[in-house]
């Protein structure tokens, strides 16, 4: 069956460290993968998109990798800050405009 | 632009009542999506429209749910009759295809409607 899996346990890290979140998928062949941030009581906000022919994408302190062989994406936040505390959602395009979201990983950055 | 606008922000109703959720997409966006988010099931796509036409409604849970988009600036999601298991946060999102980009890039979400059915 088709699945998108993200770490269900919250990730707790110290300010200044690098946070790494994982997204694994099975039985999909996405043309691209996206990462969104969601704060409590708010809608998801788009962060980064990486295409199947790209290995890595960066935006300021954010970095995303995409390994279509492993069927995995890693999302890194370097020099993390308490303001980075949120839930991060991985999303896969399954054709047309249809997007399937993972359950999300909650990140806590401690000052 | 004000972003995607949803109303109401909170809705409390009793089982069996009709519920109507409203959404105004970002001006110029030709794709509109309705999602439902719960702790148990995460964020689920219910239906999406392109140019006011429903394209994929395979996520609509059952006949009690219906969605319409009478024009480019307005959509509704209706639940009739509502049940306690419909309690969730309902999000509307909009998007458009940009030149040189693949389909589905960057969806802009509204603030959501928190629905509680007693």
List the helices and strands and how they pair.
The complex is a heterodimer of chains A (111) and B (118).
Chain A lengths: L2 E4 L4 E4 L4 E8 L5 E7 L6 E7 L4 E4 L2 E6 L4 E6 L8 E10 L2 E4 L3 E6 L1
Parallel strand pairs in A: 2-11
Antiparallel strand pairs in A: 1-3, 3-8, 4-5, 4-9, 6-7, 7-8, 9-10, 9-11
Chain B lengths: L4 E3 L2 E4 L5 E6 L6 E8 L3 E9 L2 E4 L8 E7 L2 E6 L8 E8 L12 E2 L3 E5 L1
Parallel strand pairs in B: 2-11
Antiparallel strand pairs in B: 1-3, 3-8, 4-5, 4-9, 5-6, 7-8, 9-10, 9-11
What is the β-strand count of chain A?
A: 11
Rg value of chain A: 13 Å
End-to-end separation of chain A: 41 Å
Query: Which two chains form the greatest contact, residue counts included?
Result: A-B, 22 and 26 residues
**Helix fraction of chain B by DSSP (H/I, runs of at least 4):** under 10%
Task: List segments of chain A where confidence is low: pLDDT < 50 over at least 5 consecutive residues.
Answer: none
| Overall form of chain A | globular
The mean pLDDT of chain B is 92
Largest sheet of chain A, in brief, is:
6 strands, mixed
Query: What kind of sheet is the major sheet of chain B?
Result: 7 strands, mixed
Rg of chain B, nearest Å: 14 Å
Oligomer: heterodimer
Shape of chain B: globular
Main structural class of chain B = mainly beta
- Elements of chain B, N to C (H/E): EEEEEEEEEEE
Give an account of the 3D structure.
The complex is a heterodimer of chains A (111) and B (118). Chain A is mostly beta strands and 111 residues long. Chain A is built from no helices and 11 strands. Chain A has strands spanning 3-6, 11-14, 19-26, 32-38, 45-51, 56-59, 62-67, 72-77, 86-95, 98-101, 105-110. In chain A, the strands form 2 sheets. In chain A, strands 2, 4, 5, 9, 10 and 11 form a 6-stranded mixed sheet that branches. In chain A, strands 1-3-8-7-6 form a 5-stranded antiparallel sheet, with no helix packed on it. Chain B is mainly beta and 118 residues long. Chain B is 0% helix and 53% strand. In chain B, strands 2, 4, 5, 6, 9, 10 and 11 form a 7-stranded mixed sheet that branches. Classes of the chains: A mainly beta (111), B mainly beta (118).
């Amino acid at each position: 069956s088709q699945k998108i899996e993200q770490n269900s346990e919250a990730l707790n890290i110290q300010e200044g460290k690098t946070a790494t979140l994982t997204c694994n998928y099975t039985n999909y062949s996405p043309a691209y993968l996206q990462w969104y941030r969601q704060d409590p009581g708010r809608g998801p906000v788009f962060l980064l998109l990486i295409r199947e022919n790209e290995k890595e994408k960066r935006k300021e302190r954010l970095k995303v990798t995409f390994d279509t062989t492993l069927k995995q994406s890693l999302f890194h936040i370097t020099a993390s800050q308490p303001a980075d505390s949120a839930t991060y959602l991985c999303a896969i395009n399954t054709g047309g405009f249809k997007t399937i979201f993972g359950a999300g990983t909650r990140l806590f950055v401690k000052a | 632009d004000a972003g995607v606008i949803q109303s109401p922000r909170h809705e409390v109703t009793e089982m069996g009542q009709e519920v109507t959720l409203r959404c105004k997409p970002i001006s110029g966006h030709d794709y509109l999506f309705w999602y439902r988010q719960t702790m148990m099931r995460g964020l689920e796509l219910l239906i999406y429209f392109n140019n006011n036409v429903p394209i994929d409604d395979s996520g609509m849970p059952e006949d009690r749910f219906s969605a319409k988009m009478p024009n480019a600036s307005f959509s509704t999601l209706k639940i009739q009759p509502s049940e306690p298991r419909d309690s969730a946060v309902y999000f509307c999102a909009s998007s458009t295809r940009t030149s040189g980009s693949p389909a589905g890039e960057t969806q802009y979400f509204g603030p959501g409607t928190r629905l509680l059915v007693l």
